[in-house]
């Protein structure tokens, strides 16, 4: 004998069972999305660290060359000064490009898990509307 059907609760239990199944599927989808975004975030973070280390190395080189250029400026021939400042300018330009790359990558990394946050916000909005 099915007591739930006799009490008129069969449809109620079936409806809540379907809600639970749907919630489990949604949770699995959100977990998969989170894993995919976490992998992308880790990749972006690794690139940011690599570029930051490269930027640090370029900074050391830039300061070394810039120091040499300042020292050479006091030497006798003007050709040495021109070449030294050209080399220093080249290293400064390379450093600026690397700094721009690091900055743009840092901005992208700061927007991690955007799709997951959006999807969870949509879910929360739908839940509030149904309540």
UniProtKB/TrEMBL annotation:
Domain of life: Bacteria
Name of the featured protein: Phage holin family protein
Pfam families: Phage_holin_3_6
InterPro entries xrefs: Phage_holin_3_6 (IPR009937)
Taxonomic lineage: Bacteria, Pseudomonadati, Pseudomonadota, Betaproteobacteria, Burkholderiales
Record organism: Simplicispira suum
UniProt keyword annotations, A-Z: Membrane, Transmembrane, Transmembrane helix
Chain segments annotated as transmembrane: 45-72, 84-106
């Amino acid at each position: 004998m099915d007591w739930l059907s006799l009490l008129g609760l069969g449809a109620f239990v079936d409806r809540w069972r379907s809600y639970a199944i749907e919630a489990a599927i949604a949770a699995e989808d959100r977990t998969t999305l989170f894993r995919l975004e976490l992998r992308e975030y880790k990749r972006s973070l690794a690139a940011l660290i690599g570029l930051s280390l490269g930027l640090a190395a370029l900074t050391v080189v830039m300061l070394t060359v810039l120091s040499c250029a300042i020292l050479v400026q006091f030497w006798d021939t003007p050709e040495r000064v021109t070449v030294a400042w050209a080399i220093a300018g080249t290293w400064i330009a390379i450093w600026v490009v690397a700094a721009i790359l690091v900055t743009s990558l840092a901005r992208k990394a700061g927007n991690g898990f955007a799709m997951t946050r959006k999807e969870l916000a949509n879910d929360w909005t739908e839940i509030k509307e149904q309540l």
